[in-house]
Write a structure and sequence with these properties.
The chain is α/β, with parallel strands linked by helices. The protein contains 10 helices and 12 strands. The strands form 2 sheets. Strands 2-1-3-5-6-4 form a 6-stranded mixed beta sheet, with helices on both faces. It has a 6-stranded parallel beta sheet with strand order 9-8-7-10-11-12, sandwiched between helices. Helix 5 links the parallel strand 7 and strand 8.
Length: about 290
């Protein structure tokens, strides 16, 4: 990013709150490395002002926006267009300027897929356990089914909610690969050989400061997990991750998902491609910011 002038493009993030966001680290450092005249800033949008914020951003010629809680679904009616994946998931985290309004994308999920690929974790043809059927779990179930997972077991405290999400995903994607289960019924999972499943932890259980909490506390469960992704990145190693690693699996946190959702958004806004080397440098800056 050069000095701000009349040609500088603006991007940002809208949410409530946004004061904690690490996205400026991603985007402003990418602009410096790419030599792109763009600046990225957070915008705190009060409840009830989201429509004003989206229209105002377009009126101010803002190039693109990220959207964070609690507006990822609420923003959809105010968009001119919706990417098919975001439409099926029902959540948007990236707005791209088009003629007549913003187009909504979900780079949270494309970013997660990119992060998993960078760590050598496959979805296609694999059996996946998704822990949690909230907004994130729902999106991850869609992602796994859309990327040809062999089977997706959606575990949630409320079986009714998990069943609703599983039915919705199966219907939308014309598949039957997603199966709902009550969380306490994890012992009914087909075990087969050990280290069989990819598990993705999509709840807030274990988030700082409740670092000793874990959604399932049973070594038998983790012996069946060959790779475990916790979408939390604070603390750096959650108890879920430690249990995966202690029982022979590969454990990962959510920081690379944060990195790649940002990179995917940056590439959409600027029509560029971020190299693996540049991604690694930004990832190191994010890690440094957690210390």
């Amino acid at each position: 990013m050069s000095d701000i002038n009349g040609k500088t493009r603006v991007c940002g993030i809208i949410g409530n709150p946004v004061e904690h966001t690490k996205s400026p680290v991603i985007h402003n450092n990418l602009s410096k490395r790419m030599g792109i005249d763009m600046v990225y800033v957070p915008f705190h949008v009060e409840n009830g002002r989201l429509k004003d914020a989206v229209r105002g951003a377009y009126g101010l010629n803002i190039l693109g926006m990220n959207v964070t809680v609690p507006y990822k679904s609420e923003v959809i009616p105010f968009l001119a267009e919706l990417d098919p994946l975001a439409g099926k998931i029902g959540a948007v985290n990236t707005l791209v300027r088009t003629e007549g309004g913003y187009k909504g994308y979900n780079t949270d999920m494309t970013g997660l897929l990119r992060a998993m690929k960078s760590d050598g974790v496959r979805i296609e043809g694999e059996e996946v356990i998704v822990l949690g059927a909230g907004g994130v779990g729902r999106a991850v179930a869609f992602l796994c089914a859309a990327n040809n997972a062999k089977k997706v077991y959606l575990l949630n405290r409320s079986l009714e909610k998990a069943d609703c999400v599983a039915s919705e995903v199966n219907r939308a994607l014309e598949t039957d690969c997603v199966t709902a289960m009550a969380l306490p019924d994890y012992k009914k999972l087909p075990n087969g050989s050990e280290n069989r499943y990819a598990a993705i932890q999509c709840t807030s259980v274990g988030l700082f400061p409740n670092v000793n909490d874990v959604i399932i506390d049973d070594a038998d469960f983790y012996r069946c997990v060959k790779s475990g992704y916790d979408l939390i990145y604070s603390p750096w190693e959650t108890r879920f991750m430690k249990l995966v690693a202690d029982n022979g699996g590969a454990a990962f946190n959510g920081l690379k998902m944060l990195l790649y959702q940002g990179i995917d958004a940056y590439e959409l806004w600027n029509g560029c491609k971020i190299s693996d080397d540049d991604a690694a440098i930004i990832y190191a800056l994010l890690q440094k910011g957690l210390n």
